[in-house]
Amino acid sequence: MADMESFRETVSAWAAGGSGDTARDLTEALSVRTVVLVEGPSDVAAVSALAARHDRNLEAEGVCVLSMGGAMSVARFTSLLGPPGLDLRLTGLCDVGERRFYARGWERAGATEQGFFVCAADLEDELIRALGVTRVTDLVQAQGDQRALQTFLRQPAQRGRTPQQQLRRFLGTKKGRKIHYGRVLVEALDLARVPAPLDDLLASL
């Protein structure tokens, strides 16, 4: 049975040079209307977690949150999914350093009026600032990663970095950790303090 994960896999294969026929069929079968383009799976986890906290089922609403595997792929995905391709509504979430790639991709696809949302550094930095270092450290301990964090903090490379910078670096030190904490940090947020780029993205869907 077709589901949104099938759509994600099919679009990724299409972007890698495959056929777009199946993607077109799934777009119709799943009533896909909007695609949220993000850099990686940790962003997917965070967006999905926030939607769940608002009791929203994005897939049932025809919204696909799609990890591109890197911001430099955005032009390819916008051309396939935007006006030149499937003509779906596009939006996205990116780091400030990726803004130029997103802007160029949106412009080339003729989707400039649809827009995307920009994090000050990256989404992890936004979430750590919203929760505070103490709360994030408590969450790391609750997830059983306190020893790993302490070992990480003893590394010479961490000297001179702020606690927030250290936590941000820590989240990216092990495969799967950013994805896990993308969900954990969002689930711990006060909904009145959700970082603006993430909050505005969900409100736009």
The shape, in one word, is elongated
Give me the secondary-structure category.
alpha/beta
What is Rg? 18 Å
Strand order of the largest sheet: 2-1-3-4
- Largest beta-sheet characterization: 4 strands, parallel
Which bin fits the share of residues in helices?
40-55%
Estimated share of beta-strand residues: 5-15%
Let me know the number of strands: 4
Can you put this structure into words, describing what you see?
- This protein is 53% helix and 10% strand.
- The protein is of the alpha/beta class and 205 residues long.
- A four-stranded parallel sheet has the order 2-1-3-4, sandwiched between helices.
- Strand 1, helix 3 and strand 2 form a beta-alpha-beta unit.
- Helix 6 (123-131) packs parallel to helix 10.
- The longest helix has 13 residues, at 41-53.
Write the layout of secondary structure elements.
Layout: H1 4-15, H2 21-29, E1 34-38, H3 41-53, E2 63-67, H4 74-81, E3 89-95, H5 99-108, E4 117-119, H6 123-131, H7 133-142, H8 146-153, H9 163-171, H10 177-188, H11 196-204
Parallel strand pairs: 1-2, 1-3, 3-4
Helix pairs in contact: 1-2, 3-10, 4-5, 6-9, 6-10
Q: What labels would you give this structure?
A:
four-stranded parallel sheet; 4 strands; 205 residues
Short description:
The protein has about 200 residues and is of the alpha/beta class. The protein contains 11 helices and 4 strands. The protein is elongated, with a radius of gyration of 18 Å.
